[in-house]
Amino acid sequence: MDIFNLIFSFLYQFGDAFAFLVLSACGLAVIFGMMGVINLAHGEFIMCGAYVSTSAVHAGLPLPLAIVAGAVAAGIAGMIVELLVIRPLYQRPLDTIVATWGISMIVTQGTLIVLGPSMQGVGTPFGSFTMGGYSYSVYRVILMIAAIGTLALLWLMFTRTRFGLLSRATIQVPHVAEAMGVNTNLIYSVTFGLGAGLAGLAGGLYAPTMTLVPTMGASFMVEAFVTVVVGGADIFLGTAPAAAILGVIKAALTGWQGQLAGQIGLLIAVIIVIRILPRGISGKILKERA
Amino acid sequence: MSILETRKLNKHFGGLHVTGNVDFTLQTGEMHCLIGPNGAGKSTFFRLILGEHQPDSGQILLAGEDITRAKSFQRIRKGISVKFQVPGIFKELSTRQNLVIALQHHVPAGMLREEVDRLLEFLKLSGDQAQLAGNLSHGQKQWLEIGMAIALKPRLLLLDEPTAGMTPDETHATGEMLHRLNAEGMTVLAVEHDMAFVRQIAHRVTVLHLGKVFAQGSIDDITADPRVARIYLGEVDA
Amino acid sequence: MAEQSRLRAALRLVEGPQTIGRGPRFWAGFLVVLACACAYPMFADSYDVGNNVYFFNWLFMAMGLSLIWGYGGSLSFGQTAFFGVAGYCYGVLTINLGDAYGLTLLSLVLAVGFSAVFAAVLGYFLFFGRINGVFLGIVSLSVTLVLERFMAQTAGPQWAIGSARLNGFNGMGGMPSLTIPWPGGDIVLFPDLPLYYLTLALLVVVYLALRMLVNSRFGNVLVAIRENPQRAEMLGYDIRKFQLGGFVIGSALAGLSGVLYTSWGNYITPASMGMTAAALPIVWVAVGGRSDLTTTLVGTLAVLIVFQMLTIHGSQYALVVMGILLVLTVLVAPRGIVMGIVDAAGRLTRRKEVR
Predict the structure, then answer these.
(1) Number of domains composing chain B
(2) What pLDDT digit, counting tens, does each position of B13-60 carry?
């Protein structure tokens, strides 16, 4: 019985870590995988999702709808940013990183000025359940399901829809796609919006579990970066397995030494991984297959 | 005496064999051209020699020394040098600076200025030495990169389509320059499509097709071989 | 004789293809600026002078980033990690060793050395793993963010090294200032005239030394790697070693900034390694013109002063302005604003000469 509880506890920890890694990274990975752009304002899109969904709950919207509203708001914000700042910089990926950092500074500080140092949260819903004397949060389990659901939806979107087909064609051979009449500008814009929307979704989903402050995005950044670096450019072959592997490391270290040890462990893992697999897991898999 | 030898060199990406059991020998002092239709594995073969790809199996020997596991820069130091197909130059640096970087590795500080001047003269780039290399004409960029490659005084010079985009006059002049360098003892291996140029420089020609050595011989043998003509028309499978 | 000529050859490298500014006119201007900087304390309150050393403290980190990013082409977003590590290291060492016998100077050297070793270990994994620009940036940023979070939770009394309490989020204080042992009474470098002149001297030395470095063979290879790493390798250079070398030197300079800052304010906090702190060096260097030491120096100083004025007059808007400045620089003057002005001036004078 004790063994069972131990295993369940570890699985719960793992699922929690996995969900956090997947949700915080997939928006970053979509944009990076498709456009080669590392969006340093990623954390601010997460913050945007969290703030909008929380405000929506305060305004009386039910939580699931509020989360969707947060994601949509972040997605729209992403498309605006893409249009104004990212589009002129397609040929200069390194400059894009620097520019998105500028946006991050503007948004973080702007939010502080306009909305103040913190926003009242909504509290974690659904309470908790106990098993073998330990209590677990129901909402965290929902987050795990949400992470898997998000991956499934993205899979369907990229493999079964016209947008998915066109966008994959656009990454692989942009000029051919263009010659075939694909509006690559539109594809990039929608992709960036999608990535920002996913970030907003992560923000909305985690908003009930965190303190809402303008700098909250930064607390997602390390996990998101690490997952994308380990995973490489492909979200399904990279981000998801990376999140699974890193989830084990994080869960084990967090269970053993606490939150911070988990994070330091992740960072050390990533530094070692890049020494072995410079292009991440998906780079390795794709190289084997190509 | 062979300067370069590959033994059963294999490289595949997934299921596709890009080079399959390539046994290839290059004699010291030879000028040798590699030809073959697109996708024949010429570029991959070059990358294997340069160490940009690791072979799945097989060996690469430079003057008898096994360099299969050596890093790219180590192979260069052992006497290989390369000119890429797309001019690989330092665009934002001056033409002179490009050559300084190529030469400073083995030329002592006191002689550097003289050596750079001599090389600029040789390449007919003295007048443009202050220009950013990115602003040179396409032919001049090709020459500059050839200059950087020969600045290392290599034993073996690899050229990937050295005359692509050159005018016929420039192509001919390049050929003459290669003959001069060859006379001084440099072995040359070039991937080339321009048959007139191949005829101008090559002692021997190797045809690669589907990752395998398909035919080898003098340019006259090769052009007289009906099977070679057919692979260019896509009629032979292997 | 041979040594003398070698020295002369090294000194000649202060001018070269990799640095803007040559000839008597440039150096005359340089001397005028230097003379103004030396004379400034005569016309100002010594309290202000001490405060303004603050600006100098950051310039070392900025020049180091210019070396790594502008010359070497590797984006490091985490220079603050080395700043913070060296700052904390200086604090821990001096609190334990005290300030007698020039031990603070030893601590300075050890702290900078420690940050260099840290950079060497991290850089080994990055460059020998052949990490490209994007990943290098985010890994280094992750490192500094994790360090910030680590230091922020060191609040309890169990987090102490010797007699130095790390003090978590509030930061570590109470370390002695740099002190020069002197017969007849040590000179304590409080934010005052002696510190001003010492920092200025250090700045001039580092600036000139870096100019020589980037115009040397090492610098040639560094810019070659920035322009075309494949070609550089195919000229026989082990590019990983050069990248690592540049990274370690640049990071040690960030460490030097960290020590000077800590000694200047007797204070260091985890926030000095946070997201905002990490962004600021990028702003200074990008706005000035990262690919040249002089434009970096001028740009950094200008941005720092503007930032300070904004903080005084409209505190909270300063960071927003910095963000806008960064975005606009990237969009409008990708080579940097100071560099843009230099280019424009160069074009004007050249046109005149043609006429």
Answers:
(1) 2
(2) 765 667 777 888 888 888 989 888 777 778 888 888 888 888 888 888
Q: Which chains have at least 3 CB atom pairs separated by less than 8 Å from chain B?
A: A, C
Rg (CA), chain C: 21
**Number of domains comprising chain C:** 1
Residue at B214 is within a domain: yes
ipTM of the complex: 0.86
Q: Tens digit of pLDDT for each residue in C43-91?
A: 888 778 887 888 899 999 999 999 999 899 888 888 999 999 999 999 9
Question: B210 is in which domain, residue-wise?
Answer: 1-79+156-165+187-238
Contact criterion met (CB < 8 Å) for C138 and A275: no
For B161-192, the pLDDT digits (tens) are 888 878 888 888 888 888 988 898 889 999 88
Do B160 and B48 lie in one domain? The reply is: yes
Would an 8 Å CB–CB cutoff place A94 in contact with chain C? Answer: yes
Q: Encoding tokens for residue A3?
A: 């063994």
Contacts of B51 (CB under 8 A, 6+ apart): B67, B70, B71, B72, B74, B75
Are residues B54 and B68 located together in one domain of the fold?
Answer: yes
CA–CA min distance C218, chain B (Å): 10
Fold type of domain A8-289: ABC transporter involved in vitamin B12 uptake, BtuC (1.10.3470)
Tens digit of each residue's pLDDT (9 = 90 or more) over A167-181: 777 777 767 767 777
Return the sign of the alpha-carbon dihedral for residues C116, C118, C119, C124.
positive
In a domain, C334, yes or no: no
Does the beta carbon of B13 lie under 8 angstroms from any beta carbon of chain A?
A: yes
Residues with Cβ within 8 Å of residue B164, at least 6 apart in sequence: B85, B142, B193
On whether residue C319 sits in a domain, the answer given is no
> How far from C269 is each of C1, C20, C97, C263, C273, CA to CA, in Å?
51, 36, 21, 13, 8
Domain that holds residue C154: 2-277
Q: How does pLDDT run across B74-110, given as a tens digit for each residue?
A: 999 888 898 888 778 898 888 888 999 988 888 887 7
What pLDDT does A290 receive?
A: 40
CB contact under 8 A, B76 and C234: yes
Q: Are A148 and A205 in contact (CB under 8 A)?
A: no
Any A CB within 8 A of B168 CB: no
Measured between CB atoms, does A1 come within 8 Å of chain B?
Answer: no
Q: Within this chain, do residues B221 and B115 fall inside the same structural domain, yes or no?
A: no
